[in-house]
Design brief:
- By secondary structure, this protein is mostly beta strands.
- The chain has 5 domains: 164 residues, Immunoglobulin-like (Sandwich); 116 residues, Sandwich (Immunoglobulin-like), CATH 2.60.40.10; 97 residues, Immunoglobulins (Immunoglobulin-like, Sandwich), CATH 2.60.40.10; 421 residues, 6 Propeller (Neuraminidase), CATH 2.120.10.30; 130 residues, Sandwich (Immunoglobulin-like).
- It is built from 3 helices and 69 strands.
- The strands form 17 sheets. Strands 3, 6, 8, 9, 10 and 11 form a 6-stranded mixed beta sheet that branches. A 5-stranded mixed beta sheet has the order 1-12-7-4-5, with no helix packed on it. Strands 22, 23, 26, 28 and 30 form a 5-stranded mixed beta sheet that branches.
- Strand 43 and strand 44 form a beta hairpin.
- The protein is elongated.
Length: 980
């Protein structure tokens, strides 16, 4: 496929017997045709029908009288005619496709079909003001291909014409003998009083726009000077056309005697790319220096224009596909269909010159050639407004010859699930613990249940039972805590958990079960994959020995929290302090299950380090754990983020657990039974076990703690839920006094059952108490339940000894509603299968329709020429911390680091306002932010940032879209380096 871009130059024959010269001034007309290429041969054949009503516009040029050309449409036979064109003016014609058609790629030869003239003199019957008619050229026979489903305006073809018939030669008539007259003095030539423009041309072999050791000065190139505004030939101060000049052996050129004005240069060459009229050269003689002898010009003043780049043509190029990514997976699979009519634009590194435009064919394929290897270019994809990228960049910076995937997946925005995803849950799934053997008398008791998002009341009572649906029972799964949901097909997954008095399921201590359309299977048993007792194991006795033998292994054996992301399950192995990454659509084995060890981050004894939670946020893996104090470590919490490149963890939050806590309950004598965290032990004392970490919609870090003693033997557990907020320094800070960042929680002024203040900084963000009964009732697990909502598992929402879930406002920590799943009987004669206040529920996850999340992609780059445009060859800035701020928050929502090419991305909520923020101190001293929104017609390549007062930051703002997908505007920063 050739480039859909043409520059048509038609030259006349120059006679050699000239005595006087002047430029040809004849007026031109252009006749072309839009037609349906029925045989797909990219040539106009007799009988192929013309295509009417194709919109045609002309760039910022005028006819010979200075009138602009309105938008026109091809006639009923497909022809179009433009009259009154002048020579030596570049006319740019733009054709826009109608519905269900796209422009075919075709060769634009500078010739006509054999035996047919390209230019002829007009005759009166033509009814034209023009003297000459340009017609029949291959370039202006415009072929269209029918393709149902192509949207109007998605295929755009641009063709340029510049006609210069050269100099009209006027031979002298034969002389008539006459007497020899007296000698007449030669006329004095007009004085040279204008300004000279002088500069240099060089062949820019590496495309960096700078003459360096890899480049050479360019000789033998014809250069003309033109008026910048209308692209007509420039006149000197005496009204004469300034002739073209040839660059010399040192690449030098010079024009003499220019009047004040604004000019550009036209390089007429076939060996190099022709960028059109380049530069904006302002001549103001009063402000220019005097010329000197070394300038080699006769004009009294001179504008030294510096050097201009020329780029060699070549035979290299690129190709790719644009396809409908039906499953949103970001790569092309056998079921994905190509999309026709998508425009691909290729830009050169200097002048922001459009090298060419190609359009995808009926199979979605595109290609172009004509470039030199090692040359930097920018490739842009013009996507219709009703489509979005599913992950691929729509602007790509490439060095020709570089291996790069330029296949672009798109999806209709309406199919991306704007009302779906985790922010729009339909229901929630949690796990329930059941006493005894999995095949014992309680084998039919529920272990996995689904609760409607509108649930309220008591699920164990008839009036509210319909809100809850049983998905699995004790005989199917045994004791399970971790839970994950796959929105692509609705499958649910639960993982084994070690709890005293509750048996493992049929697959043992190290299994993940899959619940698919009512069928329950073992998705993977790690004991089979990696060897017996891989997660640690224990055979329950369910007698007087249970607490002493099973209790010490709580939090140290089996599996912990589990989550789903991008067709994989992530689960923690408590027996080895590692993360297991498990494929969903393949049979897990020792090769495709990834194992990520989580080393001790700082406990004084490695034996005291115990992980449990796992989450994925902004594409990053987070885990955490506690130093248990059993071997002398200080009770504390670490939250860690995994670096996939270095395969190591960094600490994003650390805090100790010695803050004041309230009461588990009041004893018979109204004494406070303390909830202060103690070292892990096999006894009935509060023991912090970090069981859940999640991020809410505003990027706040939510941490849930199970009280380990509740999984051993304690009758009343004292769980905890805490929040940490991201600071402007990029660090997380634990809530204090019930406040987190700028947010004030519901427990800021809380008092315990004993009347004392409690919590980190003597307050809690979330209200977790049960009036007159407990200071702590949750959370064993937590999940984002909506845009500004958190849903947790705990106990005692309505009555004592219930297993309950609660809905919280994530912005103020207030409790919104609750729903209780079970109530445990305290009548010893009628024992219950449930665990009452003893950590009777596990983790919780949301159920939602599949969607494509929304991502905002930005870039940091070095704007060498300070033009505010991401030019090809301008490098990205890596390793810079970028913050995302939601709405009017004073603290960040998220943070990330720019990659090797300067790119970064954030997952954002739909229809919301955000800011991107970077610190000035992170850039080179003396650098500045470039101009904002330099080219509104190309928002993907602009800089969006600006200086924010005296805060020492550059910021940009954007409104997120109403649909899912990847968006590339509103968050890019061009940095102009300090001038040396």
């Amino acid at each position: 496929m050739k480039i859909l871009y043409s520059l048509l130059l038609i030259s006349g024959i120059i006679l050699n017997t000239a005595l006087s010269q002047q430029y040809d001034q004849r007026i031109l007309a252009l006749l072309g045709r839009c037609y349906i290429d029925t045989n797909n041969n990219a040539l106009y054949d007799e009988g192929e029908p013309g295509f009417a009503n194709v919109p045609i516009s002309v760039g910022n040029t005028t006819d010979y009288k200075g009138n602009t050309f309105p938008v026109r449409y091809s006639s009923s036979d497909g022809t179009f005619l433009y009259d009154g064109l002048t020579q030596r003016t570049t006319y740019e014609f733009t054709f826009t496709n109608p519905k269900d058609y796209y422009f075919e790629t075709y060769d634009k030869a500078l010739a006509c079909p054999p035996g047919v003239p390209c230019i002829r003199a007009t005759v009166p019957a033509d009814k034209l003001v023009a003297n000459l008619l340009v017609a029949n050229t291959y370039a202006y026979n415009i072929p269209l291909i029918k393709q149902p489903g192509v949207s109007p305006g998605t295929s755009v073809l641009t063709v340029k014409i510049n006609v210069d018939l050269g100099i009209v030669q006027t031979p002298s008539p034969s002389p008539t003998p006459s007497p020899t007259p007296s000698p007449t003095p030669s006329p004095t030539p007009p004085p040279i009083t204008g300004t000279a423009i002088a500069g240099l041309l060089f062949t820019d072999n590496n495309g960096n726009g700078i003459y360096d050791g890899k480049d050479i000065w360019t000789s033998g190139v014809s250069i003309g000077v033109y008026n910048f505004n209308d692209k007509t030939r420039a006149l000197d101060v005496n009204g004469k056309v300034i002739p073209s000049v040839m660059s010399d052996s040192n690449g030098r050129y010079a024009f003499e005697n220019l009047a004040d004005g604004v000019y550009c240069l036209w390089m007429d060459t076939t060996k190099y790319f022709n960028p059109g009229c380049v530069g904006r050269i302002v001549v103001n003689s009063t402000a220019l220096p005097k010329s000197t002898a070394s300038d080699g010009v006769a004009s009294p003043t001179i504008l030294r224009a510096g050097s201009f780049s020329l780029f060699l043509t070549g035979n290299s190029g690129y190709s790719g596909f644009v396809y409908n990514d039906r499953d949103f997976n970001g790569y092309m699979t056998s079921g994905d269909q190509g999309i026709a009519g998508i425009i691909v634009k290729i830009y050169l590194p200097v002048y922001n010159f459009l090298f060419g435009t190609v359009t995808t064919d009926s199979n979605g394929r595109w290609s172009f050639t004509g470039l030199q290897p090692g040359f930097p270019i920018r490739v842009e994809f013009v996507v219709p407004n009703d489509f979005t990228s599913t992950g691929a960049n729509l602007v790509n910076f490439i060095t020709v010859g570089q291996s790069i995937d330029l296949n672009i997946g798109l999806a209709p925005k309406i199919l991306t699930g704007p009302n779906a995803g985790p922010s729009n849950p339909k229901s929630f799934i949690t796990t329930c613990f059941v006493k005894g053997a999995y095949n014992g008398k309680y084998k039919d008791e529920p272990t996995v249940v689904e609760i409607n998002k509108d649930a309220q009341g008591k699920g164990y009572a008839q009036q509210s039972a319909d809100y809850m649906k049983v998905l699995a029972s004790h005989k199917d799964t045994g004791s399970v805590h971790g839970i994950a949901f796959n929105p692509e097909n609705g499958d649910k997954f639960v993982s084994s958990y070690h709890k005293t008095n509750s048996d493992f399921g049929p697959a043992g201590s190290c299994a993940i079960y899959k619940l698919s359309s009512g069928i329950i299977t073992t998705h993977v048993n790690f004991n089979d994959v990696f060897g017996k007792s891989y997660c640690g194991g224990y055979a329950h006795f369910f007698d007087f020995r249970e607490t002493s033998t099973a209790g010490p292994l709580v939090g140290k054996a089996s599996l912990g929290q589990m989550t789903y992301s991008d067709k994989k399950l992530y689960v923690t192995n408590l027996g080895k302090n590692e993360i297991l990454v498990v494929p969903i659509y393949q049979q897990p084995n020792s090769t495709n299950v990834e194992r990520i060890p989580v080393p001790n981050p700082g406990c004084s004894s490695s034996d005291d380090w115990h992980i449990f939670p796992i989450t994925i946020y902004q594409g990053e893996i987070y885990t955490g754990g506690v130093c248990s104090g059993e071997k002398g470590s200080r009770l504390s919490t670490y939250i860690l983020k995994y670096n996939r490149n270095t395969k190591s963890f960094i600490t994003v939050l650390f805090y100790t657990l010695g803050y004041a806590r309230g009461c588990r309950y009041l004893d018979t004598y109204s004494n406070c039974v303390s909830s202060v965290w103690r070292n892990w032990a096999n006894s009935d004392v509060p023991q912090a076990m970090l069981s859940t970490i999640i991020f809410d919609a505003n990027g706040h870090l939510i941490m849930a703690y199970k009280d380990r003693s509740g999984d051993i033997s304690a009758l009343v557990s004292s769980p905890e839920i805490l929040m940490a907020c991201l600071g402007t320094d990029g660090l997380f800070y634990l809530e204090s006094g019930g406040k987190c960042g700028s947010l004030v929680g519901a427990g800021a002024d809380q008092r315990s059952l004993s009347g004392a203040k409690y919590g980190p900084g003597f307050g809690n963000f979330f209200d977790t108490h049960k009036t007159n009964l407990h200071d702590y009732t949750n959370a064993f697990g937590a999940v984002k339940g909506g845009r500004d909502m958190i849903v947790t598992t705990g106990f005692d929402y309505y009555e004592a000894f219930e297993g309950s879930i609660r809905w919280y406002n994530a912005s103020n920590g207030s409790m919104l509603k609750g729903y209780s799943l079970y109530i445990t009987s305290t009548n010893g004669r009628n024992p219950s299968p449930t665990f009452g206040k003893q950590n009777g529920l596990g983790d919780i996850t949301s159920v939602y329709d599949a969607s494509l999340p929304q991502f905002r992609v930005g870039r940091l780059w070095v704007d060498i020429n300070a033009n505010g445009i991401q030019d090809a060859g301008e490098t990205g800035i890596s390793g810079v911390q970028v913050f995302l701020v939601y709405g009017e928050q004073s603290t960040p929502t998220s943070q990330t680091i720019s990659d090797a090419n300067g790119y970064f991305k954030f997952e954002v909520d739909f229809s919301s306002n955000y800011y991107c923020v970077v610190r000035i101190a992170d850039f080179q001293d003396g650098s500045t932010i470039t101009v904002k929104n330099a080219d509104p017609s190309h928002p993907f390549t602009n800089s969006d940032g600006f200086l924010a007062g005296s805060d020492g930051v550059y910021i940009s703002n954007f409104a997120s879209a109403d649909f899912g997908g990847y968006y590339f505007t509103g968050c890019s920063f061009g940095i102009v380096p300090k001038r040396q």
